[in-house]
Write a structure and sequence with these properties.
8 strands; Rossmann fold; alpha/beta; 8-stranded mixed beta sheet; 262 residues
């Protein structure tokens, strides 16, 4: 996808935030894409390319891709949401549709809670929350152990920027490896740590929202998600015929659903 601008600005706590921006039409909303833990902006390029008539912003979250990390304590869902607000205000953007994948979904929900006046719609893909996660106790325990073990070695490793377009055809097990290759281990683990602590209250969503879940997602409690939102008139629920990696493996379905919803 050809972007008009590749930009960077400073966050509220003086961390460099990198993002790509494409302004196409004054009559179209801005799709603001938020990637998952360990990923970067390139994971969205196949989907963004399929929506060429929309205005688009794709940031690298702090600690990911080309954005800086700052203090480890700053890697929180709240700060991620504040970073999005910084970009929106800097670019004087109105009419925002947040599109979040996994970690990005929780960031979108937190942003809508903090800044409801700036949130028009949300597309939440592959929710990853302790509340809706199978084996959540095991996930949390393994991540906490990994977090403690990784800390002394993480920053000494040279990162290898990952282009998720080029590895799209890889098998599902390869993607966590790519995440770790491209992101410092302590950032990856801290993101998941904060994600598992975050109370994802999807029933409190007040704007129109579309939830996309993998039909064969082995870690998500899709039935519980549906039960939670089934009586909400403003929330749609759709199952995509794939697993947790919807954005990586089923971009065409995402394009179709986003275009229909947006």
């Amino acid at each position: 996808m050809i972007f008009i601008e590749e930009k960077s600005i400073s966050s509220h706590d003086d961390i460099k935030l990198s993002y790509k921006l494409s302004r196409k039409s004054r009559s179209r909303p801005f799709l603001f894409f938020l990637h998952g833990a360990g990923s970067n902006h390139t994971v969205w390029e196949p989907i963004a390319s399929g929506l060429p008539d929309y205005n688009i912003v794709i940031p690298d979250l702090r600690g990911h891709g080309n954005s800086d990390t700052g203090k480890l304590s700053s890697i929180t869902i709240r700060n991620y949401a504040l970073d999005i607000k910084t970009i929106i205000d800097h670019e004087n953007i109105n009419d925002v549709i947040l599109v979040g994948n996994s970690l990005g979904s929780s960031i979108a929900v937190e942003f809508s809670r903090l800044f409801p006046e700036d949130t028009n719609k949300m597309v939440l893909i592959s929710l990853f929350s302790r509340r809706f996660l199978r084996f959540s106790v095991l996930f949390n325990a393994v991540n906490n152990i990994a977090y403690l073990m990784m800390m002394p070695f993480s920053m000494k490793r040279v990162l290898d920027f990952q282009d998720y377009v080029k590895i799209r055809q890889k098998r599902p097990w390869y993607f966590p490896i790519a995440d770790i290759k491209g992101t410092h281990l302590h950032v990856y683990s801290k993101s998941i740590k904060d994600l598992l602590r975050y109370p994802l209250k999807i029933e409190s969503i007040s704007v129109p929202a579309l939830l996309l879940q993998g039909k064969h997602d082995m870690v998500a409690k899709n039935a519980k998600i549906y039960k939670t939102i089934k009586n909400l008139e403003n929330v749609r629920f759709r199952l995509i015929d794939t697993h947790h990696l919807i954005v990586n493996k089923a971009p065409e379905s995402c394009i179709e659903q986003i275009r229909d919803f947006a």
